[in-house]
Amino acid sequence: MTLKVQDLTITRGGIPVLEGLNFALEPGRALILRGPNGVGKTTLLRTIAGLQPPLSGTVDCPSESFAYAAHSDGLKAMLTVSENLNYWAQVFGQKDINRAVSTFNLDALVDRMAGTLSAGQKRRLGLARLLVTGRPIWVLDEPTVSLDTASVALFADAVRAHLKTGGSALMATHIDLGLEEADVLDVGPFRAKADTVAAGGFDEGFL
Ligand SMILES: Nc1ncnc2c1ncn2[C@@H]1O[C@H](COP(=O)(O)OP(=O)(O)OP(=O)(O)O)[C@@H](O)[C@H]1O
C-alpha cells in the first residue's frame, strides 16, 4: 500500500507548523524525517497516523494501515511482557507473539512486569508491538531513544525485514540506521510562514 501525502499543512496548538508537504512512500521503502527540534515532525507523524486532522491537504491511505509508535511506549505496567504483547495482538486480531519476542530479544523477560523493565527494555517491548499489529505502514517517532547499540541494530533488522515483506516505514530519527531502502526528507524548508491561529483553534487533545 502506497502512502501519498498531498499539499499538506499541519497545525499544533492551532498554529500552522509545516505547510506544502508532498511525498509518497511506496511498499518496501522507508522515509526518514529530519529537521530541527520543534519544527513539527511529531505533529506530522500524528497527522498522518490519523490522530489529528490536517489544516489542509490530504493523507491518501486509510488510517487502519498504520501502526504508530509514539515517544511514549504506552505499556501496561502491571502486565507482563507476554501479556502486553498478547493484549495488543488481540486488539489487532493477531495471535502469534513469538516473532515479536525473539526479534526484540525479549525471551528472558516474557514473565517480567512491564513496569519493572529498564528504559531500553521498555522501548524494545514498545517496538515489539509493531510486529503484532500486522499493519503495513509503520509510523515511528524517535524509535531508538533509550536503545543501546545492539538494540538499535535489532530495530534496524526488524525494519529491514518489514520492508522485505512489502511493508514500509515513516520515521523521525536523528540516528543513521544504515537502511539502504531509506530516503530522507528534511522538513525544515516546509516550516509554515504564517503563524496565525488556524480556524478551529486550540487542539486540546495534545496536552
Ligand atoms: N500543546 C501545544 N500547544 C502549542 N504548541 C505546541 C504544543 N506542543 C508543542 N507545540 C509546538 O509545536 C511545534 C511542533 O512540535 P513537534 O513536537 O511536532 O516538533 P518536533 O519536530 O517533533 O520536535 P522534536 O524534534 O523536539 O521532537 C513546536 O514548536 C512546539 O513548541
Describe the structure in your own words.
- The structure is a single chain.
- By secondary structure, this protein is an alpha/beta fold.
- The chain has a single domain, classed as P-loop containing nucleotide triphosphate hydrolases (Rossmann fold, 3-Layer(aba) Sandwich), CATH 3.40.50.300.
- It contains five helices and eight strands; from the N terminus they run E-E-E-H-E-E-H-H-H-E-H-E-E.
- The strands form two sheets. The chain has a five-stranded parallel β-sheet, with helices on both faces.
- A hairpin with a 2-residue loop joins strand 1 and strand 2 (15-25).
- The longest helix is centred in the last third of the chain and has 16 residues, at 149-164.
- The model has no long low-confidence stretch (mean pLDDT 93).
- Adenosine-5'-triphosphate (ATP) binds next to helix 1.
- Keywords: ATP-binding, Cytochrome c-type biogenesis, Membrane, Nucleotide-binding, Translocase, Transport.
Give, in order, the helices and strands.
EEEHEEHHHEHEE
CATH topology group: Rossmann fold
Oligomer: single chain
Q: What's the rounded overall pLDDT mean?
A: 93
The whole-angstrom Rg is 17 Å
Q: At the first level of CATH, what is the class?
A: Alpha Beta
Strand order of the largest sheet: 5-6-7-3-8
Principal-axes geometry comes out as globular
pLDDT < 50 runs, ≥5 residues: none
How far apart the termini lie comes to 32 Å
Look at the structure and name the CATH superfamily: P-loop containing nucleotide triphosphate hydrolases
